[in-house]
Structure formats: structure tokens, C-alpha cells
Amino acid sequence: MDNVICPICNGPMTDSGYANYLSSIKIFTRVPVFYCNLCDLFSKILPPDLLQNHLNSAAYILPENEQTYYQKKIGFFNFITSLILRYKNHPRILDVGCSYGHLMMAAAEQGIDADGVEINDSFRERLKTKGFRVYKDLFEVSHRYDAITFIDSFFYFQNPLDVLRRCKDLLKEDGILLLRLTNRNWLARLRWTLFKRSDLSVLGDTTHSYSIKSISRSLNQTGFRIKDIHLFEKGRMKKIFHLLAYLLAIATFKQFVLTSGLIVVACREA
Ligand SMILES: [Zn+2]
Questions:
Q1: Are 44 and 16 in contact (CB under 8 A)?
Q2: Ligand 1 mean position, distance from CA 32 (Å)
């Protein structure tokens, strides 16, 4: 495969290996992975329909897993809600890729109006019966918001800059964008550079895998600027490694960010 173009800088990407990618329930397919050195972005090349099949097969889509996910994540969603409240009083929020709607529920508990975007039809219908407004597509949304959140969902979109530009249209003048991303590029780069590992499955199920550098470049290209990057993820740092990685990042003034996730808060460029 040649001529793979970086979705951020339009420069050529380098063939860097492959990843095993969930293609239907418990079935994995090998897909090629490319890298942009300028942006520090890893991208999987996904054939048509594969992303859709993936999203229909992931564990977090199965109704029988809802309670488990709720218990595992509700502390984290309460933390995200409190984070939004640090920036905005009485916000109206839009959660993109809202899945079971647990963040919307955590927000509603705090009296916050929360709408969602969810591609999965049955989730959408279920959330509507609970009284939530849920859109199928970001481009169908007709309101403006104080905060738009993407919790582990932004990295699925194949066209990140279009998504960010759309968010800019949907945010109020002083609105904020909150992106929770996985942070595994450093690990993939390490394995790839030191051990010549071409299996980059460590990147997880992202379409594009971001680091601070690649998300900064994406945001700058689309008229956003980063306000804060939060590395402490209350309710989600269950292992000692998570705490150590956080302490390392703080001790090195974010020179070594090996935390498992990044929470990026951005606002419109003045
Ligand atoms: Zn690039």
C-alpha cells in the first residue's frame, strides 16, 4: 500500500506495521498501520464497513455488559462532570459517542442538561425512552453547547479535522471541547524503534492514535487552542503503574507523559 496521507498535515505516512483489529464479535482481522513522524500520529487503514462492524462488535456495545461498565466507569464519569463544572456554570453539554449514556446520566444527576450523539440505533432508542435527546450523527445536531465531550470516541473518527471544525460550529463562543484519548503512541514507538516490533496492536482499537503532539496539531489546524491537559483520571487509575506514570509526568513537567490517558480541554482560538 502506498500514498497514505496524514489526515492532519496531508504529508506522506510511513508503513509501520500492522494491528489486530476486532472485526466481529471475538474475531480479529489484521490491518496495516501507518505513521506520520511530523505529527506523531499512528493510523490504521480500515477497509469500508470494517469500522462499522467493529463498532457493532465491541464489548461496550453489548447490552449485557451495561451494568459492569456502569460500575466500572461511573466514578470516572462523575469526575468528568466535576471537571466540566470547573470550567462552566450550568453548562449544556453534548457527549459524542455516548454509548450507554452513563456520562449523560452522571451529568443529569448534577442537574446538567446533556444530549448525546450515538451511531448505534438500539442505544439511541433506549436513551430516548429515558428522556435524553440523542442524535445519530454530529452533523444532525441543531443546538449549540457550552461543552462537547468525546470520551474515548474521538480516535474512531476517520476525518478528525472535519469533526473538530463541526464542533467549533456547535460550541458557543466561550464553549469548551473535552477529549479523553488513550496515550499509547510512546509505547508503540518504543516497541517499534527498539525491538522492531511490527505488531502495533498495543494501540488498541483506535482508528487514529494521538499523542499530545498530534492532538495539539489537530486542534491548532482547526481554530482551537489547548487550555489544559489533565493527566490525573479519578476513578480510572486502578493500578500502581497509573499512579507512577502520573507522578513521573508531574515530576518532569510533562516531558515524560506515559499515563494511560489524556484529557485535553480546548477552547476556540481568540
Ligand atoms: Zn502529519
A1: no
A2: 17
Tell me the average pLDDT across 166-177.
97
Instruction: Report the C-alpha dihedral over residues 139, 143, 168, 91, rounded to 10 degrees.
Output: -140
How far CA 28 is from CA of 62, 201, 204, 209, 228, in Å, comes to 17, 11, 12, 19, 36
Give dist(CA 99, CA 126) in Å, integer.
10
Who surrounds ion ligand 1 at CB < 5 A? 6, 8-9, 11, 36, 38-39
Question: How far is it, in rounded angstroms, from Cα 204 to Cα 54?
Answer: 12
Q: How far apart are CA 45 and CA 5, in angstroms?
A: 11
pLDDT of residue 69: 85
Predicted pLDDT of residue 1? 62
CA of 197: how far to CAs of 18, 141, 218, in Å? 10, 42, 27
- Amino acid, single-letter form, for residue 4: V
Average pLDDT over all residues of the chain: 92
